[in-house]
Amino acid sequence: MGDGDLKKTVSTLKWHGDRLDLLDQRELPFKEVYIGCRDHDQVAKAIKDMVVRGAPAIGVTAAYGVVLAALEYKKKDKDGLLAYLRQAIETLSGTRPTAVNLFWALDRMGEVMEKNIDKDTGGIIKALTEEAVKIEKQDLKINKTIGKNSLGLFSDKDDLTILTHCNAGALATSGYGTALAVIRSLDSAGKLKVVYADETRPYLQGARLTAWELYKEKIPFYVITDNMAPFFISEGMIDAVVVGADRIAANGDAANKIGTLGLSIIAKYYSIPFYVAAPISTIDPDIKVGTDIPIEMRPEKEVREIFGNKILLDDMPVKNPAFDVTVNDNITAIITEKKVIFPPFDKGIKGIF
What we know:
Layout: E1 13-15, E2 20-23, E3 34-37, H1 40-48, H2 55-72, H3 78-93, H4 100-115, H5 121-150, E4 160-164, H6 179-188, E5 192-198, H7 205-216, E6 221-224, H8 229-234, E7 240-243, E8 247-249, E9 254-257, H9 260-269, E10 274-277, E11 283-284, H10 301-304, E12 305-306, E13 309-310, E14 323-326, E15 333-335, E16 340-341, H11 345-352
Parallel strand pairs: 4-5, 4-7, 5-6, 7-10, 8-11, 10-15
Antiparallel strand pairs: 1-2, 2-3, 8-9, 9-14, 12-13, 15-16
Helix pairs in contact: 1-2, 1-3, 2-3, 2-4, 2-5, 3-4, 4-5, 5-6
């Protein structure tokens, strides 16, 4: 895959050597604003506050957060730098508990730190920077490959209508997407008719982000509210559902944005293929089943308000789980950069690791 093939569709993040600029996804689709992060605490806050979101993008961002931590430490003593980096990694790891790519990227940065422990502080910082850049470039290449690998699933079909949930596009990665990599590849191959994008309450990632990406690239789409999806599926208007994932268990159970489980149930009832597109780094072999995946609970405010406008009385009780887990029985296949994994998923996933 040449460098020309690795062109980003959207610049989710920009590394400047001593500053990480993040496209503020809270402001989309109305404003395209970048927030500059100059230390790891700013990066951690950006992840927690959902300036950046999507498991692969969170991982890449956290890797650069470690580099910023190394640059923050102005003293020359190596022991002090290593201690500071370990503390920074701990801080970054506490931002989003469900997205396994966060921990995967931080583990890689930690391993590089330990492997270069015999070097001086400058050498350690150089190695960490090179690793973060490598993680970003690898993510983009992985996403492109996921898109290419998906085409075999649709080889005998044209004029496809795809339903997707949340945002698993360029904004959720270093710059191409996972579920939207499938959609982009189908569009490039002339096989795509239209995309239905769930708005994805309460944070509206589908309406604000996925629709924005599709609009920018002139890919045909409709935005629908989440509770409309069963209607379009039951009317035979959807050929397949394609979603991303934030963590996949060893048995193929997949945690994704809240509402994904319901979609999988409807799709299975109407015999519609339900595909999960995700990099290998999203698979957590240490998590045996989906019920063991930690589910992040988000602030009540996200449900109580839409764009700062209250829609509930202050004393009305609210719960806000950010994710649910789709059981493996509801998944037709998992599309990765290595191969498309079919049931039984435990055997297919074990073969990869």
